[in-house]
Every structure is written in C-alpha cells, then in structure tokens.
Write a sequence for this structure.
C-alpha cells in the first residue's frame, strides 16, 4: 500500500510540474521538452510538423472590465477549444500568461491552417461572455526552421504581424487555407 501511495504521489507531482493548474494544458517546460523531441524525430523521419503560437486577444481588457475571474474563464475557454480541435497525438500548451501553443505532429501547413481556423471559429461560436478571440502564428518544420528556437521565432513573428493587421477578423474559408494572407499577418 505504501509503495502504491508513493507512486501515485510521484505521478501527481510530475503531472503538476508539467501542467498548468488553471487550464490543465501542458506548461512551458513540457512544451520545450516535447518540441525538442519532435525536432529530433522529424530529423530522423523527414516528416514535417507544425507549431502554432496563440495569443488571447485583450486579456488585460477583460480583466480590467469584467474582473480576473472572467479573465480566468476566458483562458479556460480557449484551452477547452484547443483541446477540442487537437488530436490526441498533438500537444496543447499554456505557454505563459495569455500565450498558448500547439505542436501538431506529422502535419503540414494546410493542416496547421485548418486547426487554426477551427480554433478561431470555435471561439467565435462559443457562448461564453465576454466574447474572446485569438491571434495565431504558424511555424513549419523544416521550412521555417530546423530547431525549436527557429520554429518558435517564425511562429512568433507571424503572430505579431497578424496582430498588427486591422482587418484580420475576416478569415478566408478554411478550404482555401490561410495562404500568404495569413502568413503576412
């Protein structure tokens, strides 16, 4: 019995060290470890994969006008939508604060764009108040980089271009992908 309890406690401690308490998503430490693993696997297998970086738009405004509990619920809603639109082999992460990430295993640009659209549309269709939206950038292995740092940087640059675009809420249909318009955002 004592060994079973100790094993359960160790597993719980390990889980808590690698997951965000508010959202239940993996945390930054887990993200970096898995991203490095995926880079090594992709080098060996020559299969592409993608990284999505997501930024919850206006979290400070939500906190200021609706309170921090509403801000926490907004973070949880985004996490739930991410989990809903990711495969079990993918990794959804709370990267930090209002920033999130997804590692899409064995994926290409088209698949990453589809997942990005599904997440955006899932947030728009959500019933929670206040309404929330997200800015997204995509990093593609090996096109945008061959290291974890290069992929994160590529996705981050795209995310901030996307944030600066005023007309970004008008999404092209998922069938056409996010193409160069999304890449330029």
């Amino acid at each position: 019995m004592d060994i079973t309890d100790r094993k359960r406690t160790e597993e719980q401690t390990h889980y808590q060290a690698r997951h965000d308490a508010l959202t239940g998503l993996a945390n930054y430490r887990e993200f970096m470890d898995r991203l490095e693993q995926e880079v090594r696997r992709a080098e060996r297998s020559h299969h592409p994969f993608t990284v999505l970086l997501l930024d919850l738009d206006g979290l400070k405004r939500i906190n200021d006008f609706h309170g921090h509990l509403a801000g926490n619920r907004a973070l949880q809603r985004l996490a739930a939508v991410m989990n809903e639109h990711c495969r079990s082999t993918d990794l959804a992460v709370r990267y930090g604060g209002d920033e999130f990430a997804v590692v899409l295993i064995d994926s290409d640009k088209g698949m990453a764009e589809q997942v990005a659209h599904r997440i955006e549309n899932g947030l728009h269709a959500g019933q929670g108040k206040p309404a929330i939206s997200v800015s997204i950038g995509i990093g593609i292995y090996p096109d945008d980089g061959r290291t974890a740092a290069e992929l994160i940087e590529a996705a981050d640059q795209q995310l901030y271009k996307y944030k600066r675009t005023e007309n970004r809420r008008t999404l092209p249909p998922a069938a056409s992908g996010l193409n160069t318009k999304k890449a330029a955002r």
Notes: The chain is about 55% helix and 15% strand.
